[in-house]
Amino acid sequence: MKRDKIFGINPVTEALKAGRPIQRLLIAEQRKSDRDILEIIRLAKGRGTEVRIASREALKREAPNALHQGVIAITAAQQYAALDDILQIPAQKGQAPLYLILDGVEDPRNLGAILRTAEATGVHGVIIPERRAVGLTETVAKAAAGALEYVPVVKVVNIVNALENLKKAGVWVAGAEAGGDEVYWDADFDRPMALVLGGEDKGVRRLVRERCDYLLSLPLMGNITSLNVSVAAGVLLYEVLRQRRRKAHL
Q: Model-level pTM?
């Protein structure tokens, strides 16, 4: 099986807490007594994971271009979920469905940041296309800061087909688009929802846009004509969270 690597204190800690199978840990000799590293070692030993103390040079060979913070986890490759899997999650949690569809996000740091926000706001699954988009790389995992252990990601051949399957399951689909039908804060997010955001350069593609039930706009008061996709995702997801928490407390 292909090996994968998780770098950094927070990602490795969350991977251990989530019970992800880890073959072994590499700990930098000069960091082995740090409080955060000692907690990682405790978690690893509690799960029977091999811990190796290694030199700074050895970690650099394993992760030549990564900010590893003195810890690297060697694990099985990150697995993608299936669409049917994430359709079951809301009922299991007793929550209204909330999905995020990313139509062509290519920057791994953007994808990682979006996954981190998705985990914080209770997204039940993220859907990405197989082509012309970044997958679950080491850089994505690092930027997600452990969120990959909790947010299932589905890779599909055809985003349009995925949207149709979501609709058949009773999910409303809203796309984020400049000049959309309504301002995002006026939308009803209490119902089962899937939010669609486009890639960094081209936005939501036409065929995908046409399958959306409606389009949302994010007002821009300055001279810049668009927001970074990870920022737009954060704005929309926290509005969903605000509305749903408000309803829960009525």
A: 0.76
